Please model this.
Amino acid sequence: MTVIEQPISKTTVDPTEVQQFDALSDQWWDSHGAFAPLHRFTPVRMQFFRDRLSDHFKLDRAAAMPLSGLRILDIGCGGGLIAEPMTRLGADVTAIDAAAAAIAAAQAHSAAQGLSIDYRCTTAEALLADGDQFDVVIASEVIEHVASVDAFIAAAKGLLGPGGALLVTTINRTTRSLLSAKIAAEYILRWAPVGTHDWHKFVRPVELKSALGGHGMRVDNIAGFVFRPLQGDFQISRDCAVNYGCIAVHTAEATAS
Amino acid sequence: MQTVMQSEVVIVGAGLSGLAMAVTLDSAGIASTVIDRQHLPADISDISDGRTTAISYTSRRMLETLGLWPAEHAAPILDIRVTDGPSRLFLHFDHRDAGDQPMGHLIENRFLRARFQQAAKQSRNITILTGHGVSDLQRDETGVHYTLSDGSGGQARMVIGADGAKSWLRQSAGIRTSGWSYGQTAMICTIRHQLPHHNVAHERFLPGGPFAVLPLAGEYASIVWSERDALVPVMMRLDDQAFAGELLRRFDDSLGTIELAGPRSSYPLSLTVAHDIAGTRLALVGDAAHQMHPIAGQAFNLGLRDIAALAEIIVDRRRLGLDIGGDEGLSRYRRSRRVDIATLLAATDGLTWLFSNDIPPVRIARDLGLGLVNKMPRLKTMFMRSAMGTAGNGPRLLRGQHL
Model:
């Protein structure tokens, strides 16, 4: 709550979005509640992240803790749906969210799971100002909620050293995404509360790629995530029309420029 | 609490299902603790208790993949002959109709148990705690916390109930069951016979219940004789020679003279289905989830398919860093098993009813049915594939792939 009263001019956080999520914080770990779609979406996101990180950092993805040794920053972590599995896979995770109630819920949940995660109620800009750096920055289902995608990428890049990787998942701005991720999910299936998403803030892959490129971030891979109604899960696909993700690498040359 | 055991999974029941579950999880590096009130029997493979298990083709592939296949003790079933009481019409399943693999294999339970037990004991990932039952078990968001009757305790991310038809875990979780008794009891024993069996299994439907002669390694066969409850005590009291005489009366002389080669045992037949096979941080496998008539020899295969499906879900979630005892994985397990369990129970139960009565129209109909099925190769192949377990896309282990 306090976050909303802070001056917001220097952050990428959108205060109305924070308010929206703060009100739902007690539901983060209810897999049948307001965040049910995110819970369903988590396995495929984790698969994409784990595989892209193992490729990029040359890790053994079959190991019990394939991400051991990686310092990961999870921006907009919510209740910790990504931070927790990342920690189980061996990563050293710092997870931030502007919604204080989400951080409180995340801390309580991870403590009960016996997981050690550095949760902080702060912003990417504040961490940047402190000079923190990470091997990996994750922005999963976040950039469609931020005030400025461009400013967000700039901050994320600043938190990565050369060779570091930015992992993004988000929703495309297409007719199909309007129908499925917005209208069907919020109004018909009631998967998510009405008003969870503002379709106009959705980002097309070309826009994301060009914004990343503008900051010297090299996009190595873009993949779509497709919902399979019969199996009730998501699968990685070439179809990026609704949900998609990418990995972008902070190249040393770009830092020089 | 004196000691606190930590493992990812705690398994209640160290029978065939519980041990198979532990070894399967271990094959993907997942540690488990197996708890049983009773101690594991020592030197089990020396004592024959007459109990045998039919292993389908897919179950065999799974056991081979896990290194649990006791090949030297497995007898292939090449043909199955189904006859109906006095009728001459019969159904003949030749394994060559469904590919070059045997219809299945028969193994004495003791050899499976010896193999499973050895594998479980050798694994550093498996802790076996026997001699004490579970006195308390709590399941909540934080995990599974249990206490044994000796006061020791432990924690895990989830608990698996492999504790048989009268599952303590199922009852303590408040999961109810539906079912009924068939009014039949299966009498089981091993015979030695004079003439070779040529690896042919015989299933004969008699009014009292199905009578099966199943080929074992060498000149031995396993008898599974289901009979009306009332007759069973009489039969069980007969001496070995008289009992063998009763067996011969119900069969033919194709095996020559026979003699009993071990003790007899009897098991009342019933069908029991748990209303749910999953709960908070809990899953049921094998007889704890469903107990069925042995008519089609599918009970253990169904249990292995539970294990293959559950292990795959657990391992896949573990590899993504997800909470292995979380609701989504357990819902997936519930969904993935529903059709298989219901289909097999319904089919087996239907067969039992159809073949366990002597009402003339029913008998004529089923005689015609068997004759017709025999004349329709595609339908027969479908039946066989289903019994062999090769129908459809199952879990990886059933396709012979590692987890």
